[in-house]
Write a structure and sequence with these properties.
The protein has no helices and 5 strands. By secondary structure, the chain is an all-beta fold. It is globular, with a radius of gyration of 10 Å.
Length: about 50
Amino acid sequence: MADNYCKCIKCKYIDPTERDKGYKWYCTEYRTYEDPEKIRECNRYKEA
């Protein structure tokens, strides 16, 4: 279902001030670095 997909750039769990190698943003929910341009399945996604 498309509802579970998000662009990380819009996700409220992303911390854009914390970056890895300059382009990945830190996901505070999953504690991983994510590429904000990639769409991934995120069951905890909510609009910022």
